[in-house]
């Protein structure tokens, strides 16, 4: 990763304190910022160049432009492959991608066909997000992917149809309570099937394990603030994979809870008002607005529940892992489906066609940056200018 780029420095993990829940929430809010979806390829390349200039030492301290470049990189690239995540499956697109599907599932008075179609659409989106953001140190076969998808769809539809059939049969419930429970059926289906979806889609990680690395953190459960320059994996750990996948599943349930609970409850209340009774066409835009507003605030709260790269004691994992660092030693692993670290830029730009890689292959040393470059406004980096002089 970092070894593929010239320079030995790593960017700070965040401008917020990731050791606290609210620090991670603020960081997650940046990663989920939809504005990063409109960054062009040239803008992404420029952001990567700014990050690389810091790693080279041409920029001595973090600037607003550099923090913004890091934000673009973190919200666009996968932490393992370093390649851009498919746009609809990025965390920054999560609110937009889920808006229509969630509104469809929460539509009052859905019949069997509508319930099935919207549950299938929701689980299809979940599969895409899970697969696009999954830990790439363990590959997922096509057969496993399809099997997990159909099992998740079956579970989701079974829960939704089963509860829709069960709630009306409970005679002791008042009409208001029955209406509320009926509106909450999509949440029960999404929460249970969503968690199951994560385990099914990433079950191969639990069976085979994920890469574990020596940790720079000194406390269990603490987030890792910076990446190692070049750290070899200590091996694959099934216990670490279980922790990573479980936390991701819990995060999915936490995220679904306010989105699938608050809008239908508020809408039930609003439907009793004379204003909405006289304007039934306003129900759809109100429903969309409630879902959108709740999603914007709920996503960072859910993503901040667990750190992206987590440090734990080696004795909590397999004995072969503990033997390499000592029982009291600390190791770390990547949980996924959360804000990504700046180190991902290293693997993405480690290409023979990029200026940084070409300069690295030629072992060129660049002169100190100009004032414009130090502010992150230059269109080319110092080592590119040096390379042009070298070629002449």
Task: Explain how this protein is built.
By secondary structure, the protein is mainly α. Helices cover 58% and strands 5% of the residues. It is built from 16 helices and 4 strands. It has a 4-stranded antiparallel sheet. Helix 9 packs antiparallel against helix 11. It is globular. It starts with 20 loop residues before the first helix and ends with a helix. The relative contact order is 0.17. The N terminus and C terminus are likely disordered.
List the defining traits of the structure above.
disordered N terminus; 392 residues; 4 strands; 16 helices; mainly alpha
Task: Spell out the blueprint of helices and strands.
Layout: H1 21-31, H2 41-56, H3 64-76, H4 94-105, H5 112-133, H6 142-166, H7 175-201, H8 203-208, E1 210-214, E2 235-237, H9 238-270, H10 274-278, H11 283-303, E3 309-313, H12 319-325, E4 330-334, H13 344-349, H14 355-362, H15 371-374, H16 382-391
Antiparallel strand pairs: 1-2, 1-4, 3-4
Helix pairs in contact: 1-11, 2-3, 4-5, 4-11, 5-6, 5-7, 6-7, 7-9, 9-11
* Mean pLDDT value: 75
Shape: globular
Rg, Cα atoms, Å: 24 Å
β-strand number:
4
Element order: H for helix, E for strand: HHHHHHHHEEHHHEHEHHHH
Helical residues, percent: 55-70%
Strand order of the largest sheet: 2-1-4-3
User: What low-confidence regions span 5 or more consecutive residues with pLDDT below 50?
Assistant: 1-6, 218-229, 337-392
Percent of residues in beta strands: under 5%
Q: Give me the number of helical elements.
A: 16
Measured between the Cα atoms of the first and last residue, the distance is: 31 Å
Structural class: mainly alpha
Largest sheet: 4 strands, antiparallel
């Amino acid at each position: 990763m970092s070894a593929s780029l010239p320079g030995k420095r790593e960017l700070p993990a965040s401008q917020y304190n990731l050791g606290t829940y609210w620090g991670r929430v603020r960081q997650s809010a940046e990663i989920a910022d939809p504005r990063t979806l409109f960054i062009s390829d040239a803008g992404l390349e420029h952001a990567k160049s700014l990050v690389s200039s810091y790693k080279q030492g041409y920029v001595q301290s973090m600037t607003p432009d550099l923090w913004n470049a890091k934000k673009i990189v973190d919200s666009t690239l996968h932490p393992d492959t370093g390649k851009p995540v498919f746009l609809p499956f990025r965390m920054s697109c999560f609110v937009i991608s889920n808006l229509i599907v969630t509104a469809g599932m929460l539509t009052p008075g859905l019949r069997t066909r509508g319930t099935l179609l919207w549950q299938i659409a929701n689980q299809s989106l979940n599969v895409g997000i899970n697969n696009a953001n999954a830990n790439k140190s363990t590959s997922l076969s096509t057969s496993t992917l399809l099997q997990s998808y159909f099992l998740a769809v079956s579970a989701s539809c079974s829960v939704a149809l089963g509860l829709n059939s069960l709630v009306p049969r409970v005679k002791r419930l008042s009409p208001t309570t029955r209406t509320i429970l009926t509106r909450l059926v999509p949440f029960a289906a999404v929460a249970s099937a969503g968690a199951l979806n994560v385990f099914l889609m990433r079950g191969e990680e639990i069976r085979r394990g994920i890469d574990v690395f020596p940790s720079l953190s000194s406390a269990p459960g603490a987030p890792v603030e910076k990446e190692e320059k070049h750290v070899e994996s200590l091996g694959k750990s099934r216990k670490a994979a279980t922790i990573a996948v479980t936390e991701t599943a819990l995060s999915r349930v936490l995220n679904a809870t306010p989105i699938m609970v608050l809008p239908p409850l508020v809408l039930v209340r609003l439907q009793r008002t004379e204003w909405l009774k006289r304007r039934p066409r306003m129900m759809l835009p109100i429903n969309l607005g409630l879902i959108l507003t709740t999603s914007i605030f709920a996503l960072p709260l859910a993503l901040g529940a667990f750190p992206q790269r987590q440090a734990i004691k080696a004795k909590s994992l397999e004995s072969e892992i503990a033997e390499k660092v000592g029982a009291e030693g600390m190791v770390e692993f990547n949980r996924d489906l959360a804000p990504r670290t700046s180190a991902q830029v290293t693997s993405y730009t480690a290409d023979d066609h990029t200026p940084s890689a070409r300069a690295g292959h030629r072992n060129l040393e660049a002169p100190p940056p100009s004032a414009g470059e130090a502010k992150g406004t230059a269109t080319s980096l110092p080592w590119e200018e040096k390379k042009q002089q070298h070629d002449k």
